[in-house]
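Researcher: Good morning. I'm working through a list of sequences from a screen, and I'd like to move beyond sequence-only analysis. For each chain I'm collecting a predicted structure so we can compare shapes side by side. This is the next one on the list. No need for commentary yet; just the structure.
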Amino acid sequence: MTADRREPSSDEYAAMEAALRGGQTPGVGGQAYATMDLALRVGELMLAGGETAEAVDLAVARLSRAYGLPHPEVNVTLAAVGISYLPRGGRPPVTAERRVRRRLANYTRLVAVHHLVRDATAKRLTLQQAKFALSDIIGRPTAYPNWALAVALSCLGAAGAVLVGGGPVAASAAFLATLLGDRTGAWLGRRGITDFFQMAVAAAIGSLVTVLLLMADAPVRSGSVIIGVVIALIPGRALVVSMQDGIAGDLVTGTTRLVEVLFIITAILSGIGAVTYVAARMGVPISLQNLPTAPSSVAAAQTLGAAAIALAFAVYHLVTRDHLVVIAMGGVLSWGSYVELRQLDLPAAPATFVAATVIGALGTALARTRDVPSLILVTPCVAPLMPGTLMYRGMLELTSGHTGKGGLVLAESLATALAIGAGVYVGAELLRVFRPARRVLRPSARRVRM
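Model: Good morning. Structure tokens for this chain:
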């Protein structure tokens, strides 16, 4: 121990300075740099693909240990992944960071990266083989073409309209409105317009389609088109992951994700509010009466709508075909559970929480048997629970001058949205109590009392 703490000699200092001038860190070889590069690239892909900070932290640490960095310090935020390594013997530390510049959900790639980490940890891949495997994952074509993603999002809006009782006209209008909003948002994005305004414009287009239908006296229920568009636009993936990060103890990442979700929801409500306010002043008959609501029983049309929402959500997030049948059944289960709980006079937020908890437990258990991240099977199944009706009702109350009541309804919609993420996480934690997946020291699990 004494030899490690002695002061370096003048010759050793000269060697260290020469190594630093040469771009190398004394005592840390090329293997360590290659390991850090691989771990950071894996962390970036997982974070960009929508994985939780806890899962990214664990994967980066496991990869680092598997290839020779025994005690890495990993730092994961919403925008970057960093690793710090302190070699023994008084040698200088090494720190590297990789920023996440583009976050697009790709669940197919997420599964492939998950399997790469598993094989690397089990010593089935050398470092060079792992690097080649990662390059192959990055270069693979997506599970569906780009046009299929636009169609899936539009089908999500149409199924949302059916879910709240809309007929064929409402479903067709919601499909068209979602497609126009998505393409307009993509056009604005190519010109550097931020996501906030893209979402506001997309929601405004959905509201405008409804106003035009009402002005033409079309046989459509007021609000079903807008609600379908809102269900398609609500960031369900980010909402679920934000609650998981926060409850797991990754407070910085969880809070950042949640603030991002709140800004997107604000943008959606702003687009709806602006159009409905102008329409009301122009005399368009937008009424709070007979707004679309969840059926009192599990109706066939709404059941098919819930399955279609889950399927469309899965395709839009690039889930492979072998999981789609299970996801459709999960969407039906989540919606059916919610409707039955509402029949017991349970408020929207608690009913949503219980339904999401059921899906969280069952989806996580099935994900373990299929060896995929739980997000793949859980997040699409809770998409039918998104509170589109409450958001629309709250905005109509505000634009009608009922500020207090509108604020309460919007608060209820936010509580319902947060209940989805919390329920999913609680369901997974209940499964962990009886069937622990692995021993992980979480920030929120550390004892803070003696």
